[in-house]
Amino acid sequence: MKQIIDKWGKSIGIYLFLMILFPFVMPDEYYRSVGIIIGLQAIVTIGLCLVMGLAGQISLGQASFWGIGAYTSAVLTTKYGLPPFVGLIAAAVVPGLFAFILGRAIAGLQGYYLAMATLAFGYIVQIGITEWESVTGGANGMISIPQMTFFGGSELSMYFLIWGVVTCVLLFSLNLLNSRVGRAFRAIHKSEIAATSMGIDVRKFKLNAFVVSGMFAGISGGLYAHYMGILDPQPFGLHESIKFLTMVVIGGMTSIWGALIGTILIGFISEGLILLGEVVPGLQGDVDTIVFGAILVLIIMFMPEGLVPRIRAAFEKGQAKKAKAMADDAQRKQQVERKAAT
Amino acid sequence: MTELLQYVANGLVSGGIYAIVAVGFITIYNVSKVINLAQGEFLMLGGMVTVALIGMNLPYGLAALLAILLVTLIGVLMQKYVIAYVKKANPISLIILTIGISTLIRGIASFIWGKDAFALEPITSNEPISIGGVMIAQQSIWILAAVLIILFLLWYLMDKTILGKKINACSVNPMAARLMGISPTKMSMLAFAISGATGAIAGIVIAPLSVTSYDIGVLLGIKGFSAAILGGLGNPLGAAVAAFLLGIVESLGAGYISSGMKDAIAFLVLIGMLLIKPSGIFGERSVGKGGL
């Protein structure tokens, strides 16, 4: 923990400051709810970032774990009357189990096979939710899911609950990144063969990353269900999975901060597009789909490492330049002094 | 018995479409080691552009021809300006890139044509023909005919012509091919053109049978890819056979189990196959594994 504060103390400080400030700068209930949704998405994308950036895998079905979590908690609390807290624990465990089974099955797969297997899994889950009408309510969905009664259950308290979870997930992931596990992951990402020969159990690490990402998505899904109060299978499909993918890719696959910043950025872009849709009457269809697709293509073409690592590199380059200029200055001064002495 | 035959007949028709998509995937994969996840969008564009052009009072044949040319052009441009640009990217980036292209095309389609489904007139009349009690739409026969002609032409091109030998040379060893004066870049472009054209034709012939809309490409793409994996990635003949099998299994599942689960059945087959034998029924033919 101490190491994290040493390394990222400044970033964490800025993050906490902005996070706490946001709902008070935007006192409008609508923007608070936007903030809540962005927080929920951030929990998923930080998990996805562990899978993509660290383990070097890809998941095109992340929204399915989100959906499994949401429906697990919703069904347990609505049909069986369990408290939301228990539902949330189940919402982490059940998608984790699914991720374990799927991850175990596909641990040997790579590249395109993995992409397709997770994509297919996403479809199966969405179809399963739609078809299992007796439990999930089918395409009509579920209503009157109990709300969370966290400090009165107002929009503001929900905001802090969810961003509290985001903070925990963020710190957990940063800690992971800075530990032996994180170094092992980076080794896998660079070269699996080299990592294996160094004694890293690549399969196990990949599986762990996959399970953790499934659990994060599940927790977020459970919170989503209790926040919304209603559920239908529509948001748990490919569109959402691609949105998560875009968020991770734009921020930078290899950076946890990138996932967070990418999520916030895409959240704002989505809101901007909604506003634009109100101003420009001719906008029909999925304008956001066009934007996400374009972002994915442009980022991979021109900035494959993503925004955050790029900015950090530019910043460090600037620092280095400054340091070099100072060093040069000092050297010149020394030379001048030496000349004066002789 | 008639019921069973009916399901098999339906399965053959959808299987034929999957076969075209699968062969399109493999044509590109063999030459450039890229899995073009936007393959399904070629089908969608073929159908939608034809509908749009007919809406502008162009005759059926001309509209279809223009649509095929346009989609072919899109395929070539995609290769030239996007895929070729990131040649050295790792497989994950390439997956994200082609997913991005497919998302972009889908978004633009929904922007231009909206989210409604469109129907295209069948090539000949709507009356189904009865063969031994099995009802077959006339359009189905057109589909099967188109599929078989395309598969035959592709086989002829790849196995019997110099051009096909050049394409094969690039897939076996691009460096050696280049030394022999064959340009892998050009062959890649050709592969995208072939995939675009065959995809567009498939999209046009299925449009009258199942309505066409901006989002049909995703499912068709995934199922075609499933077939390509089932048959063994890189093996066109295996992929075509696997595609027909997939179509039949899916149709039987929809008929006897539940029509809502139709798509899930195809994907369960895919995941099962990946677990048991990732190299496919007929074995992987090309070298690289899943692009890695």
TrEMBL record, chain A:
Location(s) in or outside the cell: Cell membrane
Membrane topology category: Multi-pass membrane protein
Keywords per UniProt: Cell membrane, Membrane, Transmembrane, Transmembrane helix
Major localization listed first in the record, in broad terms: membrane
A Pfam family that the UniProt record links to this protein: BPD_transp_2
Recorded superkingdom: Bacteria
Statement: the UniProt record of this protein carries the keyword Transmembrane helix: yes
Transmembrane segments annotated in the record for this chain: 12-27, 33-56, 88-107, 112-129, 156-177, 244-269, 289-308
Protein name stated in the entry: Branched-chain amino acid ABC transporter permease
Source species of the chain: Brevibacillus porteri
Upper classification of the organism: Bacteria, Bacillati, Bacillota, Bacilli, Bacillales
Automatic annotation (TrEMBL), chain B:
Short name of any one Pfam family annotated for the protein: BPD_transp_2
Keyword line: Amino-acid transport, Cell membrane, Membrane, Transmembrane, Transmembrane helix, Transport
Record family assignment: Belongs to the binding-protein-dependent transport system permease family. LivHM subfamily.
CDD domains: TM_PBP1_LivH_like
Name by which UniProt lists this protein: Branched-chain amino acid ABC transporter permease
Residues passing through the membrane, by range: 12-31, 94-114, 134-157, 188-210, 264-283
Membrane topology label: Multi-pass membrane protein
Gene3D superfamilies, per the entry: ABC transporter involved in vitamin B12 uptake, BtuC
Annotated PANTHER family: ABC TRANSPORTER PERMEASE PROTEIN (PTHR11795:SF450), BRANCHED-CHAIN AMINO ACID TRANSPORT SYSTEM PERMEASE PROTEIN LIVH (PTHR11795)
Superkingdom of source: Bacteria
Compartment(s): Cell membrane
Species name: Brevibacillus porteri
